[in-house]
Amino acid sequence: MSAYESDNIFAKILRGEIPATRVYEDEETLAFMDIMPRADGHLLVIPKTPCRNMLDATPAQLETVIRTVQKLAVASKAAFGADGVTIQQFNEAAGGQEVFHLHFHVLPRHEGQALRAPGQMADMEAIAAHAEKIKAAL
Question: Which of 12, 47, 74, 88 falls between 20 and 30 A from 98, CA-CA?
Fold first, then answer.
């Protein structure tokens, strides 16, 4: 397995080198909005410590991240009046991972509503409004 590369986009977000619409933060994790959301309220949860994915994460990293994932999933479902929540997590390029810093996608879902196609930038004002809805539900 490759070594963790500290110049990945999520490491840069953690260092404040590039902006992100932050939704939740504690000592060990950060949750922020996905700028290419596949559903309204699509957000990402990451550990603040370096690891590429679940394959090299420590049990402590996984525990803290999944705790935050659950908190944000509950808040997202409430904020959007969603029928359910999809949690996605990818490992290595062959597994669909594109950013090599452990992260979980949290997507509020509505019955009968398909996910949008990947890779489409969203309106930043809409993303900010969605973040505020989730923050209010926390």
Answer: 74
